[in-house]
C-alpha cells in the first residue's frame, strides 16, 4: 500500500477531520458536520469510525477493533487489516493493551483508562432522525434545545408497552445540553459512557463527527416513574461464569437448546485464563 | 463443546479467492480485455465515469471488469480511487456551445441552424435481438456524411434572443463542492446540479418520471440534447494563460418548461438542465427534469409536496454509493442489538401474559 | 525570503502531524493538562507550540489572524510557504495567534451560531507562564478539578456562559501547550 499516505487519508483530509474532532470535544454531544470521504469500504460499514481512527492514529499506537464485542467478527478483521496495511500500527485483541479501540455496537466490559481512545462507528448520528426525517428540522430542534418530541415518543412506549421500548441506540443527554445518539450499543452499555477515556464518534455517510471528553456527564433519558434500566439477559456466561457482562444468545440445536456467552470475547478469554468457569466449562472439567 | 466462532480472517481470504475465480469464469473462454470493455461496453463505461465523478475510460473499464459487471460496485471502486487523488486545481468551465457534436436534436423545432443530427442512437432501432451479433466476425459498413458545422448554436439561445425564456444569470462564484464540504441545506442550484450529475441513474430516472406523471409536473420539452467532445482548459497563473488539458465527451440536455409570469412580468419559458460525462442521454434528460422540479421556490411555484420538489429528499437519497452501503450493511452482524430486542420483547410478553392470566381467572 | 521562513515545517509530515494532533487532542479533551508540542518552528515571536498547532490544524481552508507582534512579514511568509492559509481579519478567522493583550477584545471573534456552534474561532494565546496553578477548572474532561495559569478568569467565565457557542483556547509557552474549551468552568 505504499502508494497511499500514512493511514490512507491525505493530510488535508486528516486536518479537516482533526479540526472536527477538536470542535466535537469542545462541544460535547454536538454533531460536527465534516466532508466525509469515500473510503475503500462501503458506507454503513464503519467509514466514519475508520476516518476518525485514521486521523487519530500515530505510528506508536496499538489498535484493537471489535464488532459486536468480538475481535474476530469479519468486519472487525477487515478494518483491523486495513490499518495494519495502511498505518502499520500494532494491533491487539487485549482491551487493556490497546491505545485506540474502534468499535461497532459495544463498549468493552473492562474499564478503559485515561490513556485510551474509544472510536465508535455510527450509522445514524441523529437521535431525532426516526422522529423527524428532515435534517433542516432536527438541526433547529438541537439549536433550540427542543427535545419534547423525544420525550413524547418514550412516553408513548410506556403507555403502550409499560416500558420504554428502546433497547439499543438508547438516547442520552450530554452535559444537560445535547441529546446524543450513543450509536447502536445495547442500553446495557449506556452507563459506561461516563468514563476515563476519550470517546469519538464517526458517521461517514451522514458526515458527522461528535465526541465526549473523559468524565463528561452522560445521562440516559428517562422519567421519574420509569427510571432507565440497563438490563441484560438474566444469565451467567456459560464459559466464564461472568454475571456482569453483556451476553450473546447462541442457539445450540434445533430443539430450543441455547446458551449465553459473553459478547466481549477478550473479557471472557481473560476471565477463563484466570480460572473462572461457567456451566459449560465446569461440566467439561469434571 | 462450544467454541466461540473463530476464523473470520481465513473466511475472508477464502471468500476473496473464490470471488476471483468466479470473476474469471470458465477459463476456456477468452479473458475480457480492458480495451474491449472500453470500446464495446462504452455506455457502461460512461455511466461509471459519470456516477464515479472521474473521467477516465480505462479506469472505468477496469472497474467494470473487477466488479464483474456490477456497475454500482464499479462506481464505488472509482469513487474510492478518486478520493485519494491530489487536487492540482480546477479547470475553467467547459464551453458546450463550442462542442464538436456527434448527436444534437431538438424536440421543440422541426429544423434549426446546425440541423437535427441523430448520431449513434438507439432511437428508432427496433428492439429485436440481433442474432448476427451472437456469431463471430461481424462487419460493419457505415455510410459517410458531410461533417456538421464546427460549432452549433444552443437552441435555448434562439428563445433567449426574443426574451421568451428565462435568462440564467452568469456567476463568477466558485460553485460549492460536495466532495469537499459536507452537504448543507438549503442547497443552491449549482450544488443540486453537482449532486444530480453524480446521482444514481435509476433514482434520477424514477424521480423525473414521477414529475411527468403529475408529482410536480413541469411540462418539459427537450429543447436540445447534444452529445460531443469539448475541450477542458485550465488557467496556469505562472504562465498567464490557459492550457488545453484534453477533450472529454459530455451529454447536455436543456429542457424548455412551462412558463412563469406575473402581472408585472410577462410570461417566459423556464429551463431545466442536465450535464453528464459521456453519452448518457437518459441520465441527462432525467437530471434536467429533476433540476427543473427542484426550482419551484425560486420560480415562485407552489410546493405540491411532490418527492421531486423536495431537495432534502432528492439530495440525501440519490447517491447510490451511500445508499447501497447503508442498505447492504444490514447484512453485517447485528446480534448484539438483536439480543437486546429479544430480551425486551420477552420481558414485555411475560408481563402481558401475567396481566392476562388474572384477568382470565376473574 | 529569509532562510527560517522556508524551514521549520514537519520533517516527515504524516507521522509528525499525527503525533502533534494527539497531543493537541489530549489537551483539548483534558482541560488544564500541559503537554509538549515542538514538532515545528516558525519565525519569532511565534512559539514552537503555536507553530506546531498552526501547521497541524491549518491549511488553505482555514483563515488565520495574526494579532499584534505575531503579525510580521517573516511569520506571514512562513504561513504562506508551509500552510497556505489565507491571512484574514479577527472577525472572520478560524484560528488566531497572539498574546492575550493582542487578541483583545474577544468579542471580535466569531462564536458560532445556534445551529452551527462549531463555526467559531480557536485562539492560540502565546503566554509567558504556563503552569498547573492559578485558576480552578471544572467541567468535561476534568475528573474532579484542575488548575491552570490563566491571564484572567472573567473572560473565560463570560465565554463559558455562551455555551454551546463560544471560543476555544490554546495556551502556548515555548514548546508546551494547554487548552481551555468553552465548556470549562473557571474560578
TrEMBL record, chain A:
One Pfam match: PhnJ
Keywords: 4Fe-4S, Iron, Iron-sulfur, Lyase, Metal-binding, S-adenosyl-L-methionine
GO biological process: organic phosphonate catabolic process
InterPro entries, per the entry: PhnJ (IPR010306)
UniProt key word Iron-sulfur: yes
Highest taxon listed in the record's lineage: Bacteria
GO molecular function, one term: metal ion binding
EC number(s) reported in the record: 4.7.1.1
Reaction catalysed by this enzyme: alpha-D-ribose 1-methylphosphonate 5-phosphate + AH2 + S-adenosyl-L-methionine = alpha-D-ribose 1,2-cyclic phosphate 5-phosphate + methane + 5'-deoxyadenosine + L-methionine + A + H(+)
Coiled coil start-end: none
Enzyme class of the recorded protein, top EC level: lyase
Task of the protein: Catalyzes the breakage of the C-P bond in alpha-D-ribose 1-methylphosphonate 5-phosphate (PRPn) forming alpha-D-ribose.
Family, as annotated: Belongs to the PhnJ family.
Protein name: Alpha-D-ribose 1-methylphosphonate 5-phosphate C-P lyase
Species the sequence originates in: Cognatishimia activa
Lineage: Bacteria, Pseudomonadati, Pseudomonadota, Alphaproteobacteria, Rhodobacterales
Gene name of the record: phnJ
UniProtKB/TrEMBL annotation, chain B:
InterPro entries: PhnI
Pfam family membership, one: PhnI
Domain of life the protein comes from: Bacteria
UniProt-recorded Gene Ontology molecular function terms: alpha-D-ribose 1-methylphosphonate 5-triphosphate synthase activity
EC number: 2.7.8.37
A Gene Ontology biological process term: organic phosphonate metabolic process
Keyword terms, alphabetized: Transferase
The protein, known as: Alpha-D-ribose 1-methylphosphonate 5-triphosphate synthase subunit PhnI
Amino acid at each position: 500500500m505504499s502508494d497511499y499516505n500514512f493511514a490512507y487519508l491525505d493530510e488535508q483530509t486528516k486536518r479537516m477531520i482533526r479540526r472536527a474532532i477538536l470542535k466535537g470535544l469542545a462541544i460535547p454531544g454536538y454533531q460536527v458536520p465534516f466532508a466525509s470521504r469515500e473510503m475503500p469500504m462501503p458506507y454503513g460499514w464503519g467509514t466514519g469510525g475508520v476516518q476518525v481512527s485514521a486521523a487519530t492514529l500515530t505510528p506508536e499506537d496499538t489498535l484493537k477493533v471489535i464488532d459486536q464485542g468480538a475481535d474476530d467478527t469479519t468486519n472487525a478483521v477487515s478494518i483491523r487489516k486495513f490499518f495494519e496495511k495502511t498505518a502499520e500500527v500494532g494491533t491487539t485483541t487485549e482491551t487493556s493493551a490497546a491505545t485506540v479501540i474502534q468499535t461497532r455496537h459495544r463498549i468493552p466490559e473492562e474499564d478503559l483508562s485515561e490513556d485510551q481512545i474509544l472510536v465508535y462507528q455510527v450509522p445514524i448520528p441523529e437521535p431525532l432522525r426516526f422522529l423527524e426525517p428532515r435534517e433542516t428540522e432536527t438541526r433547529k430542534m438541537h439549536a433550540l434545545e427542543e427535545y419534547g418530541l423525544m420525550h413524547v415518543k418514550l412516553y408513548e412506549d410506556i403507555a403502550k408497552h409499560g416500558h420504554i421500548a428502546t433497547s439499543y441506540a438508547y438516547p442520552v443527554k450530554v452535559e444537560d445540553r445535547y441529546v446524543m445518539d450513543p450509536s447502536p450499543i445495547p442500553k446495557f452499555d449506556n452507563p459506561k459512557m461516563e468514563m476515563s477515556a476519550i470517546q469519538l464518534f464517526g458517521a461517514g455517510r451522514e458526515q458527522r463527527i461528535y465526541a465526549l471528553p473523559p468524565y463528561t456527564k452522560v445521562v440516559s433519558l428517562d422519567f421519574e416513574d420509569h427510571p432507565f434500566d440497563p438490563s441484560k439477559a438474566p444469565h451467567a456466561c456459560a464459559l466464564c461464569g461472568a454475571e456482569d457482562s453483556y451476553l450473546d444468545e447462541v442457539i445450540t440445536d434445533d430443539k430450543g437448546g441455547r446458551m449465553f456467552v459473553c459478547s466481549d470475547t477478550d473479557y471472557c478469554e481473560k476471565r477463563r485464563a484466570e480460572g473462572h468457569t461457567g456451566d459449560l466449562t465446569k461440566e467439561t472439567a469434571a | 463443546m462450544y467454541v466461540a466462532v473463530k476464523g473470520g480472517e481465513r473466511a475472508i481470504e477464502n471468500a476473496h479467492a473464490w470471488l476471483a475465480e468466479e470473476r474469471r469464469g470458465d477459463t476456456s473462454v477468452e479473458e475480457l480485455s480492458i480495451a474491449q470493455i472500453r470500446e464495446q461496453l462504452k455506455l457502461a463505461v460512461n455511466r461509471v465515469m459519470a456516477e464515479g465523478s472521474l473521467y477516465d475510460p480505462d479506469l472505468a473499464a477496469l472497474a467494470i471488469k473487477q466488479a464483474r459487471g456490477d456497475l454500482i460496485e464499479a462506481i464505488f471502486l472509482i469513487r474510492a480511487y478518486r478520493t485519494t487523488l491530489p487536487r492540482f486545481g480546477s479547470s475553467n468551465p467547459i464551453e458546450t456551445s463550442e462542442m464538436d457534436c456527434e448527436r444534437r436534436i431538438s424536440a421543440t423545432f422541426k429544423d434549426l441552424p446546425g440541423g437535427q443530427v441523430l448520431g449513434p442512437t438507439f432511437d428508432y432501432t427496433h428492439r429485436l435481438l440481433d442474432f448476427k451479433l451472437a456469431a463471430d466476425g461481424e462487419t460493419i459498413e457505415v455510410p459517410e456524411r458531410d461533417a456538421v458545422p464546427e460549432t452549433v448554436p444552443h437552441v435555448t439561445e434562439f428563445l433567449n434572443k426574443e426574451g421568451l425564456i428565462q435568462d440564467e444569470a452568469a456567476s463568477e462564484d466558485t460553485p460549492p463542492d460536495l466532495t469537499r464540504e459536507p452537504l448543507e441545506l438549503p442547497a443552491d442550484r449549482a450544488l443540486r446540479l453537482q449532486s444530480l450529475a453524480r446521482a444514481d441513474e435509476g433514482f434520477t430516472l424514477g424521480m423525473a418520471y414521477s414529475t411527468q406523471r403529475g408529482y410536480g409536473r413541469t411540462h418539459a420539452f427537450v429543447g436540445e440534447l447534444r452529445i460531443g467532445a469539448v475541450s477542458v482548459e485550465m488557467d496556469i497563473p505562472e504562465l498567464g494563460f490557459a492550457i488545453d488539458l484534453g477533450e472529454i465527451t459530455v451529454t447536455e440536455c436543456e429542457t424548455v418548461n412551462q412558463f412563469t409570469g406575473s402581472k408585472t412580468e410577462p410570461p417566459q419559458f423556464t429551463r431545466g438542465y442536465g450535464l453528464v460525462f459521456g453519452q448518457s442521454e437518459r441520465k441527462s434528460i432525467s437530471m434536467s427534469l429533476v433540476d427543473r422540479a427542484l426550482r419551484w421556490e425560486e420560480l415562485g411555484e407552489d410546493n405540491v409536496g411532490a418527492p421531486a420538489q423536495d431537495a432534502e429528499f432528492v439530495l440525501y437519497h440519490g447517491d447510490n454509493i451511500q445508499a447501497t452501503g447503508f442498505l447492504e450493511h444490514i447484512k453485517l452482524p447485528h446480534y448484539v442489538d438483536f439480543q437486546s430486542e429479544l430480551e425486551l420483547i420477552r420481558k414485555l410478553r411475560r408481563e402481558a401474559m401475567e396481566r392476562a392470566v388474572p384477568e382470565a381467572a376473574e | 525570503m529569509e532562510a527560517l521562513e522556508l524551514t521549520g515545517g514537519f520533517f516527515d509530515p504524516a507521522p509528525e502531524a499525527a503525533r502533534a494532533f494527539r497531543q493537541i487532542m489530549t489537551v483539548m479533551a483534558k482541560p488544564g493538562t500541559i503537554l509538549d508540542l515542538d514538532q515545528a518552528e516558525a519565525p519569532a515571536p511565534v512559539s514552537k507550540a503555536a507553530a506546531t498547532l498552526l501547521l497541524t490544524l491549518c491549511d488553505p481552508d482555514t483563515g488565520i489572524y495574526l494579532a499584534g507582534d505575531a503579525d510580521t512579514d517573516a511569520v506571514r511568509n512562513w504561513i504562506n510557504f508551509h500552510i497556505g492559509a489565507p491571512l484574514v481579519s479577527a472577525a472572520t478567522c478560524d484560528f488566531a495567534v497572539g498574546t492575550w493583550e493582542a487578541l483583545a477584545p474577544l468579542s471580535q471573534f466569531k462564536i458560532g451560531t445556534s445551529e452551527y456552534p462549531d463555526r467559531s474561532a480557536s485562539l492560540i494565546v502565546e503566554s509567558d507562564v504556563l503552569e498547573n496553578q492559578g485558576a480552578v477548572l471544572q467541567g468535561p474532561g476534568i475528573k474532579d478539578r484542575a488548575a491552570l495559569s490563566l491571564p484572567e478568569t472573567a473572560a473565560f467565565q463570560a465565554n463559558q456562559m455562551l455555551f454551546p457557542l463560544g471560543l476555544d483556547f490554546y495556551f502556548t509557552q515555548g514548546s508546551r501547550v494547554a487548552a481551555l474549551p468553552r465548556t470549562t468552568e473557571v474560578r
